[in-house]
Amino acid sequence: MTFRVLTAELSHETNTFSRHSTGRQAFEDRYVLFGQEAVAARGDANTELAGFLDVGRKFDWQIEHVVSAAAGPSGKVEGAAFEWLAGSILAVAERGHFDGILLGLHGAMVVDFCEDGDGELLRRVRAMCGAEVPVAITLDSHANVTRQMCSLADIVVSFRTYPHVDMRETGLRAATILQATMVGDIDPRTIRVGRPMLEETNGGRTDAGPMIARLAVAEEYEKHPDVFAVSINAGFASTDAAEVGPTVLVTGQGDFDRHSSFANSIADDIWARRFETLNEYLTVDAAATLAARFDPGEGPLIVADYADNPGAGGYGDSAALLGALLERGVSNACVAPIVDADAVRVLSGFDVGDRISLELGGKVDPEFGGGPVSIEVELSGLSDGWFVGDGPMLGGLRRSFGPSAVVRVDDIEVLIVTVAQQILDLQQLKSFGIDPERKRVVALKSMHHFRAAFEPIAGKVIVCDSGALCTLAYERLPYQNVPRPIFPLDDGPYEHLSPAPRANSSAPLY
Ligand SMILES: [Zn+2]
Description:
The chain is α/β, with parallel strands linked by helices. It has helices spanning 24-30, 35-42, 48-58, 79-95, 117-129, 147-152, 167-183, 211-221, 256-272, 284-292, 320-327, 341-347, 427-430, 451-454; strands spanning 4-11, 31-34, 62-70, 100-105, 135-139, 155-158, 189-194, 227-233, 247-252, 281-282, 301-305, 333-339, 355-360, 373-383, 386-388, 398-400, 404-409, 412-417, 441-444, 460-464.
């Protein structure tokens, strides 16, 4: 039997504190690819779509791929942009007769009229297709998973790596479970448990720390014949929404009391180890001091500006770290990116080699990440901002920073761009003439994804908090919608959970 399957990818991680709302242009700046155009660009890369297609070929599905669309993390999605993209999916769903629906979502999308954008899309798909058609979704492990999402999707499968390098594998896992459901071999549904936290303490990183053991236990539990997927989501702290935070999901059948107690055992561990921070978050001054005396014998010092990560909705325009590096006269360094469209416009009126005075960065909201730096730069190059990734996350995928410039100030090269992107691939520097392997110090805007491509070339990695929008000082953010009390904003009371918080005191479960 040939199954007809509707597939689509629609991804947005909404930082509700961002001043930039997310409209149609923001999606077009990242990618909006319909039908075969999406298959050509993403069908054989490390994407959820590629995993869907792998399974589709294996079982001879008739696939109708509607759209692949994503915007960079930013403020609430504008209703018109949501209607445009959701509408394209619903228009195809309306034609009907699909045996299954397979959607690649992020799972932290807030639309300006609705706190649960992913759930709203699923609600409309269900309204169109009915209760009987199996619906499978994939999620980023930084999803804030709502009850609505789990009640509307039968199958939910999240990434299992951070840095995320298993997009294709996740798509493949979800599609395989959908196949078994369409055949009638299984009858899955998904349960969810959470804890009152803004996010898992280390953002769900899987290269170190307690997540490694949690995932091993999850994979062991998946060997049970009634368990099809266990997903451990770190959550996304920059979404001010009622259902924020880490969740554990079980997609299964049969004994849901047992599945629930299993999910709770992992959630308890996330809660119990909430004080176990893996990173040391330096101030920009402390980071620059280390940079000034760093010996690059074994490769450059990578300095990650965690708080200004465009990959979590940071503006990417904080110049605080650049300013600190300049103040200490750090040599042979680079900083990428500073998002400043006005500066790029000014620079584009000059020639390579010209010297120009700039007020760079710090313009969107100086309360978060400081104001501009006043510098005199030498223009090294101008670009349309396109690059093709070659690392584990973006290999083969084409992205753009929009109009961009490289400038030199003292002995520091700076990549100035129009469209915010976090740095997670060496080609984001190399394509613009900056060779990170030859630098003594590489300062970049990213929380953790950079590690996939930059740790192999790094002599050492340090992380700083510039006080920008994704700062760990959560008390600076005007949360209104998250349930209270919530960790780490509140001391409690959390009577129903583990007792008195004491740093690093809790015994690990695994
Ligand atoms: Zn993520």
